[in-house]
Amino acid sequence: MKKSAFLGTLAATTVLAGFASAATLDDVKARGELICGVNTGLVGFAAPDANGNWQGFDVAVCKAVAAAVLGDASKVKYVPTTGETRFTALASGEIDLLSRNTTWTFSRDTDLKFTFVGVNYYDGQGFMVRKDLGVSSAKELDGATVCIQTGTTTELNLADFFKVNNMTYQPVPINTNAEGEQQYLAGACDAYTTDASGLAATRAVFADPENHIILPEIISKEPLGPLVRHGDDQWADIVRWTLNALIAAEEYGVTSANVEELSKGTNNPEINRMLGTEGDLGTMIGLDKDWAKRAIAATGNYGEVFAASIGESTPIGLARGLNAQWTQGGLLYTPPFR
Amino acid sequence: MTVVTDAPKDAFRPSMLIYDTRYRSMTIQIVVLLLFMAGAAWLVDNIVKNLQTLGKDFSFAFLWYRAGYDINQTLIPYTNDSTHGRAMFVGLVNTILVSVMGCVSATIIGVFVGILRLSRNWLVGRIMTVYVETFRNVPLLLWILVALAVFTEITPAPNQFRVTEQMIAEGTEPEATMSFFDSIAITNRGTYVPAPEVSRSLGSFTILDVPISLNVLAFLVAVAIAVFGYRAIKAHASRVQEATGVRPVTWWKSLLMLLVPPVGLLVAMGFHLSYPELAGFNFKGGINVSNALMSLWLALTLYTAAFIAEIVRAGIMAISKGQTEAAFALGLRPGRTMNLIILPQALRVIIPPLISQYLNLMKNSSLAIAVSYMDLRGTLGGITLNQTGRELECILLMMLIYLALSLLISSAMNVYNNAVKLKER
Fold first, then answer.
1. Residues of chain B with C-beta less than 8 angstroms from the C-beta of A92
2. How many domains does chain B have?
């Protein structure tokens, strides 16, 4: 019995893995649906709204790709993944694309055989504590109990940070952001650590956000971005340039409101090439010439997505900071559409 | 009815493999074996090919890489500079710890409940029935989560124990105080109990990087001497009784023999307790028994004890009522009857199913992941698997270890079973 169950599991794994090598673009078109791996629930980045529709900054990437490939931003099936399950889901072919605030690291890119197509949020790891703890710097956290999501880069950064600063701590490992929130609020840990953007998003849904502070120290570089499997460069190109199109659109002033009008032709050849009025960039990545126009129309440009999901006017209230366009002193810089 | 008296002497023909009953079963077995091996080979081949397609190799080299993460309960020395292999052993030791604790407490509770369920006292019997039915019929995972919720939600946070200057000035008490003469702090992060310490330590030595304390070894030796001496005194008393018919008074000798070696050793080593104290964010000093361990232990114990109770009850009921009546006729009281007559015989029925309960408990301990107790599943199958991305290797290794543990437990219990089972000659 034990042996047969074991072999059955192996067989199931291998069958799943067998799908992974097919051309993803054809699969998605044939299926008529994009399967996108997202967070299990992180308000602002990926969480279902009151009507059960997934919304957020990471979800917008899924929508833009679906709009570019299938012509309909709603044709996405969202698969919630935890820090532990996300890579297996992508490697096994269960999802076409992982857009789940995932840090781009060397070993994930190479050893785990993934292709990070770009960065949609430049982040860093921070700490959140209760105000009444009287702590104003992460360096004062010696001896503290810290809630930490397992299977993440933050787990390793945390160990390094405390080691470098000669401090000790008690880790409380958790699996999802929701569990971390619950444990932190129950007082099972003094501090909760994850990407600073995630902390802001988590704090936004607290009943008393004003009683919690995010400490000033950012202890790591966390470039977050969407990723796909190795071995299908065409699909990687599609996702990469869809993301680039959203970023470039903000740079050139193309918004969801004026994209229709601008696509009739402008005097800026770069916009014309991107929106398909001039040249034929779409066919080079296996799509039609309106792909970028559809993506921008569906979600808005990068700036619009940012403002609508995590910007300063939302409860999460993140400033653009590093995530401003290069012309505004940020790090967003797309290669030219040519 | 015809009986074939002379066996056919004609030569072997291939058709006999199917039509001759002497060979048929052999043929079927060989065919099934070939099919099974072909199936297994196909699966292995499939894995190898797909691993190649994914560009992944099969290697256990990661076990020697730096782990880089911290574990909150380490019974053997471990830092984030240790290897993944070391982290695996930390998890394994944690698994064994909670399994052993669970087996011991579940057996004690299970035996009591099983006997009490047969009690002639109606109320006691019904209460035990309710306990068994509730715990047996609700999934273990839920009990673990409930236990954790109870421990974290109703216990005070460490900072509620804090006495500030302002409080002293106002004469108010902190929200929470330590129990048992200020020795045990029950908090929502764990229970801090006093730790045994010695001021004149005998030192320690290491085997395979695991330090073994000479203090503990010396203490065990002292206890062994005490028990050995105690038994010698009893044996001597029995011999005197048989020779003279009068049993000498031995209670003070036995008591001295039992107490002097261990207590003497402890005094010589300067034994004392180190009490937990609130320092900074948490209590320092003492032993921190995490809530994850407490809730896992409690849930595993109560859940498995319910099954053990039923096994014990079945074992007792399997003993004929005549045995009890015979014991009563000889004038034995009910307690002595149970201890001397019923239980020794019932053990023969109880032990085999008890083994499988122990195995279940050990395997169920992998549900620790629900409360983030860092057992084998949490280290090797959790963080290590994630940080290295070696799913196949980690899962296979984990299965092997659980299999080995199970076989170890069942072979140890089989030895015990052979010792108590009915000797048939």
1. none
2. 2
Lowest mean pLDDT among A236-250, A295-309, B294-308, B363-377: B363-377
* Mean per-residue pLDDT, A167-173: 88
Task: Indicate the pLDDT class of residue A19, thresholds 50, 70 and 90.
Answer: very low
Nearest Cα residue in chain A from B387: A151
Task: Decide if A243 contacts A120 (C-beta within 8 A).
Answer: yes
Residues 199-228 of A with CB under 8 A from B: none
Residues of chain B with pLDDT under 50: none
Same-domain pairing of B338 and B237: no
- pLDDT for A282-293, tens place per residue? 999 999 989 999
Per-residue pLDDT reduced to its tens digit, A30-70:
999 999 999 988 888 999 988 989 999 999 999 999 999 99
- Whether A2-122+223-328 and A125-220 share one fold: the answer is yes
Q: ipTM, 2 decimals? A: 0.72
Does residue B337 sit in the same domain as residue B398? yes
Is the pTM for the entire model greater than 0.90? no
Q: Is residue B335 part of a domain?
A: yes
A330, two tokens: 């940020």
**Residue at B121: amino acid letter:** N
Say yes or no for a CB contact (<8 Å) between A160 and B68. Answer: yes
Mark whether B265 and B332 lie in a shared domain. no
* Residues near B210 by beta carbon (within 8 Å), at least 6 away in sequence: B76, B77
Smallest CA–CA separation between A159 and chain B, in Å? 6
Nearest one of A29, A58, A24, A5 to A310, comparing CA atoms: A58
For residues B244 and B118, membership in a common domain is answered with no
C-alpha B86/C-alpha B269 separation (Å) is 32
Residues B296 and B239 in one domain: no
Return the CATH number of the domain spanning residue range A2-122+223-328.
Answer: 3.40.190.10
Q: Which residue of A has its CA nearest to B53?
A: A21
User: A125-220 — its CATH code?
Assistant: 3.40.190.10
Contacts of B425 by beta carbon, 8 Å cutoff, 6+ apart: none
Query: Which residues from chain B sit within 8 angstroms of residue A173, using beta carbons?
Result: 72, 372, 374, 378, 382-383
The domain limits of chain A are 2-122+223-328, 125-220
Domain CATH code at residue B344: 1.10.3720.10
**Residue B211, both tokens:** 């330090």
User: Is B46 within a domain?
Assistant: no
Residue B388: predicted pLDDT: 84
Asked, for residue B87, whether it belongs to a domain, the answer is: yes
Give contacts of A 225-254 with B, CB under 8 A.
230-231
For residue A99, pLDDT beyond 90: yes
Q: Are the C-beta atoms of residues A53 and A107 closer than 8 Å to each other?
A: no
Q: Residue A123: is its pLDDT beyond 70?
A: yes
Contact A238, A285 (CB under 8 A): yes
